[in-house]
Amino acid sequence: MIYVAVLGYGTVGSGVVEVLERNKEAVRGKTGDEIKVKYVLDLREFPGDPVMDVLVHDYSVILNDPEVQIIAEVMGGTGAAYTFTKQALEAGKSVCTSNKALVAAHGTELMHIAEAHNCNYMFEASCGGAIPIIRPLRTSLSAEVIDEVTGILNGTTNYILSEMSTKGAEFDDVLREAQAKGYAEANPEADVEGHDAGRKIAILSSLAYGQYVDYEDVYTEGITKITATDFKYAAALGTRVKLLGTSKKVGSKYFCMVCPVMIDAENPLYGVMDVFNAIFVHGNMLGDCMFYGSGAGKLPTASAVVSDIIDEARHIGKCLVTNWDNSRLPLMDIGEVENRFFVRMKGSLIDNLCRVEKVFGKVQAVSVPELADEFAFVTDVMREAEYREKAARLDGILSMIRARF
Amino acid sequence: MIYVAVLGYGTVGSGVVEVLERNKEAVRGKTGDEIKVKYVLDLREFPGDPVMDVLVHDYSVILNDPEVQIIAEVMGGTGAAYTFTKQALEAGKSVCTSNKALVAAHGTELMHIAEAHNCNYMFEASCGGAIPIIRPLRTSLSAEVIDEVTGILNGTTNYILSEMSTKGAEFDDVLREAQAKGYAEANPEADVEGHDAGRKIAILSSLAYGQYVDYEDVYTEGITKITATDFKYAAALGTRVKLLGTSKKVGSKYFCMVCPVMIDAENPLYGVMDVFNAIFVHGNMLGDCMFYGSGAGKLPTASAVVSDIIDEARHIGKCLVTNWDNSRLPLMDIGEVENRFFVRMKGSLIDNLCRVEKVFGKVQAVSVPELADEFAFVTDVMREAEYREKAARLDGILSMIRARF
Fold first, then answer.
1. Core-most of A100, A125, B14, B259, by most CB within 10 Å?
2. pLDDT of res. A368
3. Distance (Å, rounded) from C-alpha A171 to C-alpha A243?
4. Please, what is the average pLDDT of chain A?
5. Is residue A63 domain-shared with residue A176, that is, in the same domain?
């Protein structure tokens, strides 16, 4: 019998208890032993819920019980969650989590504490919900030198952009609707400003390249400035706008950024709609591959946490190789990153194309019949700094979205 | 230092040696130790190739060398490959392979021999080439009760169907072109008749459901009867024809089949073109997920073999849980499986629709202007046996393709 404690009986925590119960036989088969939830830690009471039998309010009960070998930290945040995780690992108890904020902020330190105490710190559920991506990067693509990770990493923003794309609606309206449906939080900032995706691409990049990427170093733009008009141009170009987290090796350097990008149907991420997530990986031997699935949700996320519990149960007393080292991955200045740029401008195409091409050289021009007072163009590939310098010389630019097609 | 032997210096074997050499640092980082190819077994000589330094012609040299702990069997076939694998596992040496024929025919026995001798038999490269699917099924989706696996599992047939779809060409012409490009073998039967996909869906199903699926029990239809005309209807319906391997739980029973299927753009497999493969998995907690990538090719396949070498190197002396047990998964009679059916018929739609609907009930009719002497219809969902019985009552049926949309 393997005894587990669950920290936090919120959405994910109750999901973990449910998955362990409903899929008991499958879990036993994969573990080779029974897994039993001995404690659930939460400050609240849950009258009538069977969890009351195992509910505790004091973490020291869990920490001091030598029978508990694995702890699922699904309480969130970087305060108590950090302290509790650190204490557990120092006591030789393995910890797994869905808490991307904690992994992004303190993952390096926590993994090294685990290594020093022959236990494990795992976080399959921190990126892409139920999509198996952390473990495949660590163990399946272990023979690869990975040179790109690009993902649709946030379900809320992908839902909003999908609705804007298919219904022609404006951002604010779709956001309100998403909040009503529970797809977006009351305070949506972490999602719509790209911070959530930024934490995830930092975690995935650290794992892919073996060195620590600080999420605070990730250049981040959200989707709040994307409009229904942008999607009219996107349709004319046969493209869609997606919020992508991308990190890529260019020569011997890396860049890491989150921003809205126009992609066309050739891109495997083009078809990823609604709350689905997908992560594209390029390796030097395998070429392209992609992982697709539900990026969030109670049971999918809980299932990923339980897969970590099973893996930790099978490796009691043995630290699996630590995912990345303490050194910081040096990131390129964002000005050096190359992209194409989709640019909207005031005025008519005919009156302004010469002026645009004088600054940007040959561009791909696009106009939409119903938009009489403006037009757009897509530049060739150039450095971000070069784009900024050129754009500053051109009056009348309304907005810009990066383009990869 | 971990010593490895490679059996067979063909395409995959030379790829394994190349991946270990080119990605040496990455492999050492993931293994925590250096991996060295001590022997390559092949009956041929390779004058001038550095492999000559480690080439042996006699397997007993490898078998009797206690330093060799891991063997990559990439020679193919079910004769010598079977004997050599069995002997290695009985000697406590872990084996990994890309040999799907051997895994499909003897995988159950070989895994149980490995278990008895505290070593491992792994086969990540046997399905989907470089796509991480075996290990994710085993370890990442370990908390799931899986109820469906559907994949585009054969690159050759997907290339042929993609070309037929985009160019309107006939099967024979595209096959010849694929052979010229090296995408199809001189004897293409195993691919185009669906046997290769049948072995792969048998392996994936065994893994997903934990009981052994005999590939000889898998109902298999190939793509040789698919025509350019079928693709005209597919285009009219907004669908594509793909060769799918599917296994699914229906109530308490399972079915497993390989056949061409019409799918629409809502299906995540719709966009998988050319030699790419993809595997869709449905779990009771996670919902839908999909794995996509290169299904074949020297370096992608070799990369998957090397990921197994690394995993085995990290688990010397410890058998990871065996993937499926000795019991045979009972499969439904194919007549009980439910599908929709796309059916082409001689004659005009107007003259025949009543006759069709008298037999099949309400159908979705479709006609293509340039095809004057025939039309097609798509039935509602019904059992295969019911379809066969009804089709036998209707004169003039030209062909049938299963439809899932």
1. A125
2. 96
3. 13
4. 96
5. no
Please check whether residue B312 touches A, CB under 8 A: no
Is residue B333 scored above 90 in pLDDT? yes
Residue in the structure block whose two tokens are 């596992």: B89
Q: How many domains does chain B have?
A: 3
CA distance B213 to B326: 10
Q: What is the pLDDT of residue B276?
A: 94
On whether both A268 and A177 belong to a single domain, the answer is yes
In a domain, A240, yes or no: yes
Residue B137: inside a domain, yes or no? no
Q: Is A191 found in the same domain as A53?
A: no
Read off the pLDDT of residues B53-102 as tens digits, 9 standing for 90 and up.
999 999 999 999 999 999 999 999 999 999 999 999 999 999 999 999 99
Residue ranges, chain A, pLDDT below 70 = none
Q: Does A388 touch chain B (CB under 8 A)?
A: no
Any CB–CB contact under 8 A between B47 and chain A? no
Do B85 and B199 belong together in one domain? no
SS (H, E, C) A342-379: EEEEECCHHHHHHHHHHHHCCCEEECCCCCCCEEEEEC
* Catalytically active residues of B, by annotation: 200
* Pair (A36, A92) in one structural domain: yes
* Residues A29, B210: C-beta atoms closer than 8 Å: yes
CATH number at residue A61: 3.40.50.720
Interface test with A, best of B137, B166, B285, B314 (most A CBs within 10 A): B285
In a domain, B269, yes or no: yes
B143:A289 CB<8 A: no
Q: Is B299 on the interface with A (CB under 8 A)?
A: yes
C-alpha distances out from residue B159 to B175, B237, B295, B297, B299, Å: 9, 21, 11, 13, 19
Encoded tokens for A28 = 């036993």
Confidence at residue A336, expressed as pLDDT on a 0 to 100 scale = 97
What letter does residue A337 receive in the DSSP assignment?
A: -
> What is the band of B130 on the pLDDT scale with cuts at 50, 70, 90?
confident
Dihedral angle computed from the Cα positions of residues B200, B203, B207 and B213, in that order, rounded to the nearest 10 degrees: 130
B60 interfacial to chain A (CB closer than 8 Å): no
**Tokens linked to A75:** 């309480």
Average pLDDT over residues B296-307: 94
B32–A144 C-beta distance less than 8 A: no
3-state secondary structure of A108: helix
Q: How far is CA A213 from the centre of its chain?
A: 14
Structural domain boundaries enclosing B51: 2-130+298-324
B321 pLDDT above the threshold of 80: no
Residue B190, domain CATH: 3.30.360.10
Find out whether B202 and B212 touch, Cβ atoms under 8 Å: no
Each residue's pLDDT tens digit, A263-321: 998 899 999 999 999 999 999 999 999 999 988 889 999 999 999 999 999 999 999 87
CATH number at residue B392: 3.30.70.260
Judging contacts by C-beta atoms under 8 Å, the chain B residues touching residue A144 are 23, 26, 303
Do both A197 and A225 map to the same domain? yes
Run of H or E including B241: strand B239-250
Strand partners, B41: B7, B56
Mention every residue, 6+ apart, whose C-beta is less than 8 A from residue A53: none
The verdict on residue A182 lying in a domain is yes
pLDDT of residue B370: 93
pTM, two decimals, is 0.95
> How many CB atoms are closer than 10 A to CB A65?
16
CA distance A114 to A108: 10
Check B299 against A320: CB less than 8 A apart: no
